Amino acid sequence: MKDSKRTVKLLLFIISIIIIIGGSLFFLVLNDEKAFSIDEDCIQSGGKWLEDFNECEYLSKERCLELGGLFNGCTSACRHSGADLCTMQCVPVCSFS
After folding, report:
1. Does the model's pTM come out above 0.90?
2. Span between the terminal Cα atoms of the chain, in Å
3. Which residue range(s) make up the domain with 83?
4. Residues 20, 42 share a domain
5. What integer pLDDT is reported at residue 21 of this predicted model?
6. Dist CA 23 CA 27 (whole Å)
7. What is the distance between the alpha carbons of residues 6 and 95, in angstroms, rounded to a whole number?
8. Are residues 50 and 22 both part of a single domain?
9. Rounded CA Rg of the chain
10. pLDDT digit string (tens) for 22-78?
C-alpha cells in the first residue's frame, strides 16, 4: 500500500515537471517568433521599416504597442534627413529600442 502511494506521488511529480517544462518551452518559442519578425511585421502591416533607426513608419498605434514599440503619432518627416528646408508633415512612427 505504501509503495503504491509513493509511486502515484512520483508519477504526479514527473507529470508536473513535464507540464512546466513544456509550458516554458512553448512560451519561449512564442516570444522568440515575435522578436525576430518586427521588421517583417512592419512591412506586412503596411508600414515602412527603417533599419538604420529601428523604426516603422505608418504602423498603427495598436500594432506598435502589441510589438512592444513606442508610438509617436506625429513626428517630423525630416527627422533623419538633416535637410536645411523641411515642410511640416506628421509621420506616425513606432520606435524600438
Report:
1. no
2. 60
3. 38-97
4. no
5. 80
6. 6
7. 55
8. no
9. 24
10. 776 666 655 555 555 899 999 999 999 999 999 999 999 999 999 999 999 999 988
